[in-house]
Amino acid sequence: MQTRLNLETGAITGAMKQSERRLCDLAGVFADEAARAAMNPETVVYRVQMHDAEKEGTPGGLLFGTSVVMPGKVGDEYFMTKGHYHARRDTAEYYFCIAGQGALILMREDGTCWAEPMERGTLHYIERSVAHRLANTGADPLVVGCCWGSDIGHDYESIARGGFTKRLVEMDGKARLI
Ligand code: MN
Question: How far is the CA of 132 from the centre of ligand 1 (A)?
Fold first, then answer.
């Protein structure tokens, strides 16, 4: 099975699933909820495309997707994805950056949180039991490719409840994880 990945935009030809998240879908995700509520609720924060060669949940297969996080901030916090753990914690994942600038924010279950800077060509191995989210710190879309096992499952709930222990904000013109 073959398709094409656009190495500028991240578009996957024949992507079978796509979704987008707007500011109105992200209540409670950013620290400054008043700032989020004051912005245009239709503003797109990120889009995801998926080439689901396998049905989700199928053991032993792989899935591939691209995420595009738009440039922008809510208050001083950069536009970012909701983030997740894998439902099956003993599963890893690869991310790589296709375009733009940003960070992969990572957190262990003990709350240890850190970030890896992303720019075109950076390759990131996300270890088992590590939650992950993307943030765009640049002026252009952040385009990221992802490859994960088809049976890992996604646990967004743990993040929706507890969040990440650190946030990526702009301070004095620089990205800082605080
Ligand atoms: Mn993942």
Answer: 7
